[in-house]
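Section 3.1: Structural characterization of target chains.
Under the original work plan, the team committed to producing a structural model for every single-chain target entering the pipeline before any wet-lab resources were allocated. The record below documents one such target. The sequence was received from the expression subgroup and is listed exactly as submitted; it comprises 199 residues.
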Amino acid sequence: MASLNFFWVEEKLKKEGIKIFSIFDFQRIFKVKYETAKKWIRRYQKKGYLIKARKGLYFLKANPPLDFELANALYQPSYVSFESALSFYGILPETIYQISSATTRKTKTFQVGNLKFFYFKIKKNCFLGYSLRKIRGRNVLIAEPEKALADFLYQVSLGKRKLSYERLRLKKIKKKKLLKYARCFENKKLLNLIEKIYA
């Protein structure tokens, strides 16, 4: 424990580009026993140097991950989508103060600090149309613009979200690609909704 000086650990994590880590990650990186890693993390979490994102997942308070990066790590598999991705691409004009992601697991919500992370379940065959994108030097799994809109409109068609059509900046969307992603949901209401938006 004594040899694991906090500032040395902090520098090593920064040097290796590790923003979010589990107890197992810590154990592997610093070649210590599980109990040693657990005690060290608990000690510096109490001191306020580490933030607990969820059970078993932590990050340095002084070197936090991007919100989208944290969203990917909190609940897997998942990718950033819906309003969060649409706002990022400028398809929805307003800033979104919560992070929404798509997952194949059950719908879930987490809160880290003042920020809420929402995960909405979609069909396994619709878990596509996303890629690893570099955002501010970090790798983030995020939906393509058309898939983010398809995911969002699917929720609208189910009555789980509301939409003002005039807010959408459709010039940034390829309709053919949007329809391709929308068809995987096998929902006629969704396809009708898309045609209504473009009418």
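The first helix runs from residue 6 to 15.
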